[in-house]
Amino acid sequence: MQRLILDKDIKPMSEFRAHTASCIQQVQNSKRPVVITHHGKSAAVLIDVAEFESMSQRLELLENIAAGESQIDAGMGIPHNKAQKMVLERISR
Q1: pTM of this prediction exceeds 0.90
Q2: What is the rounded distance in angstroms from the CA atom of residue 55 to the CA atom of residue 15?
Q3: In the chain, how many domains are there?
Q4: Which residues neighbour 32 within 8 Å (Cβ) at sequence distance 6 or greater?
Q5: CB 53 within 8 A of CB 23
Q6: Tens digits of residue pLDDT in 19-60
Q7: Residue 43 belongs to a domain with what CATH number?
Q8: Which of 11, 32, 35, 73 could hold 2 in an S-S bridge, CB 3.0 to 4.6 Å?
Q9: What is d(CA 89, CA 37) in angstroms, rounded to the nearest whole number?
Q10: Contact by Cβ (8 Å): 37, 11
């Protein structure tokens, strides 16, 4: 994801309401998120759909890695040579 440009990518809710289409166009063209503020505080972030999907995939991968590390820490892992043997047996069927 591209980094925010503070003077271009932070919009008050009133500006977002008045210029929704142009805000969406900005996100699509720049690939940068737009932060929408309400009463001077951040309220929402508008991001490109492709960037959202990419972020979701990366998050899922990181969650899977963390789960695997937790399983290894809990003693649930198996040695590489045993895992390799199991995989080779399955694919040779």
Answers
A1: no
A2: 27
A3: 2
A4: 1, 2, 3, 4, 5, 8, 9, 26
A5: no
A6: 999 999 999 999 999 999 999 999 999 999 999 999 999 999
A7: 3.40.1620.10
A8: 32
A9: 57
A10: yes
